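Supplementary Methods, section 5.1.

A reviewer requested that the exact input to the structure prediction be made available. We therefore reproduce it here, unchanged from the version used in the analyses.
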Amino acid sequence: MRRRKMHPDAHPAPRKRLYTEEQRARRDATRWTLVQGLLAPAQFLAFAVSLVLVLRFLATGDGYAAATISVLVKTGFLYVIMVTGAIWEKVVFGQYLFAPAFFWEDVFSFAVIGLHTLYIIALFTGALTEPQLMALALLAYATYAVNAAQFIWKLRLARLDGALTQGATA
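The structure derived from this sequence is encoded token-by-token as follows.
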């Protein structure tokens, strides 16, 4: 496959910034940014511990209760971060969900929360066997990992935007 060479004077089109200056000011001023900043790593820690417990159960058949409790704890963090994230989005962008800057992250978040909720429903209704429940937890965790990567990417873009803003004012 041949790559097209750019003319030496050509520059790629600048990417649209994640936040306007007003949105950035609201993001930096709201306590919900700190809340999200604290909840995200806490949720990730709950995910990591739970992942180990779920995989241990699937590999050995031991520790079902611990794995189940860990999935419920992880799901609790997910619900809290989803609600507080919607509040954060309202404060920063003026709408609870699907702000253009985070549209696809919000869309995928619904898959994540849907799978976690399906786990809870299946757990309490007895609709799945223990190994099936843990497999469902792994599927929910895979979607969570993708969604977390989406948000980490946006955090990186926000930092790059901040560096550009700082460079423009220097």
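Residues 57 and 65 are 9 Å apart (CA to CA). These observations are discussed further in the main text.
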